[in-house]
Design a protein that fits this description.
This protein is an all-alpha fold. Helix content is 79%, strand content 0%. The N terminus is likely disordered.
């Protein structure tokens, strides 16, 4: 039992560590974007586009699986794919 608890605690610590790294990287990126005078709409659009493309790559283009990974409806994902002209959509 003690081993299982240690493992779970270790996983939580590792997750917390990873979350802190992501937060630090995000803070740095946001500061850089503000310094370069990148507007919020542009930044959000670029982030969303890359987030979607990454999910599509990880699911080998399977839109249903990518939508599940992203936590959106498949129709919403398809609309965004067309909007951002991803996967050959023009």
């Amino acid at each position: 039992m003690a081993t299982a608890r240690s493992s779970v605690g270790g996983e939580k610590t590792n997750q917390s560590y990873k979350e802190n790294i992501v937060k630090e990287k995000l803070e740095s990126l946001v500061a850089e974007m503000i310094d370069r005078q990148i507007y919020l709409d542009e930044a959000l659009g670029e982030f969303e586009k890359r987030f979607i493309q990454n999910a599509l790559t990880k699911t080998r283009g399977n839109q249903t699986k990518a939508a599940q990974v992203l936590g959106v409806h498949r129709n919403t994902l398809n609309r965004k794919i067309v909007q951002y002209k991803l996967n050959g959509h023009r």
